[in-house]
Amino acid sequence: MNKQDIRNKIKVLRNSYSCDELSIKSLKIINAFYKKYSFLNIFLFYYPIENEVNTLPLIERLFAEDKKIYLPVVCGKDMIFKQFEGFDKLSTGKFGIYEPEGKILDVAPDIVCIPGVAFDESCNRIGYGGGYYDRYLAVENTIIKSAFAYEFQIIDKIETESFDKPVDEIFTENRIIIRRA
Q1: Is the predicted pLDDT of residue 142 greater than 80, yes or no?
Q2: Whole-angstrom Cα distance, residue 110 to residue 164?
Q3: In the chain, where are the structural domains located?
Q4: Residues 22, 132: Cα–Cα separation, whole Å
Q5: Dihedral sign computed on CA atoms, order 60, 61, 64, 66
Q6: Which of 90, 95, 113, 165 lies 20 to 30 Å from 131 when distance is taken between CA atoms?
Q7: 76-79 contacts: CB < 8 A, separation 24 or more?
Q8: For residue 106, what pLDDT is reported?
Q9: What is the band of 140 on the pLDDT scale with cuts at 50, 70, 90?
Q10: How many Cβ atoms are within 10 Å of 5's Cβ, its own excluded?
């Protein structure tokens, strides 16, 4: 299967679950992440769309603990991160995704949480096809790269191309998959 076929198949599968089922799975995923990484200070998250793992409770919790949270903002073919200053300070950006209005990230983040449509056991990912995270990670390659995925988004193998960037780990509702060096 090519990447677009995989995208289509996983999106249909993801949409077949009820909101309650995905909510329960999401909470398991973000709680495992929180348990492992709540000691960090500067987080890059994504605003969830299309039944992705829901990061909003995690963002709210860490923000309440005075952690620095940044969300992506699409600028042409690239992506920057701006500081999250509250849910009331978000506006609709490109692709209809909420974006923060805060200051641009100007310090090294501790960790980035990357969305995706599908992943494999080697921590390769298929995103939505725009290449935004691959381009960002080609430059910002020293930070911890985590991904959130439902277990059903993990497939046997993803055929990668030279520009595809793997993540370091994937949190699912059942486990944490660590990329082998």
Answers
A1: no
A2: 22
A3: 3-174
A4: 25
A5: negative
A6: 90
A7: 77/131, 77/132, 77/135, 78/132, 78/135, 78/136, 79/132, 79/133, 79/135, 79/136
A8: 93
A9: low
A10: 9
- Pairwise CA distance, residues 38 & 110, whole Å: 11
First to last CA, the chain: 26
Task: Return the SS3 of 59.
Answer: helix
- Which superfamily does 3-174 belong to? NagB/RpiA/CoA transferase-like (3.40.50.10420)
In the three-class reduction of DSSP (H, G, I as helix; E, B as strand; rest coil), residue 33 is classed as helix
- Between CA 181 and CA 138 the distance in angstroms is 18
pLDDT exceeds cutoff 80 at 138: no
SS3 (DSSP) at 91: strand
Please give the structure tokens belonging to residue 116: 């995706």
Tokens, residue 40: 């960090």
Q: What angle do CA 11, 88, 130 make, to 5 degrees?
A: 35
Strand partners, 171: 148, 176
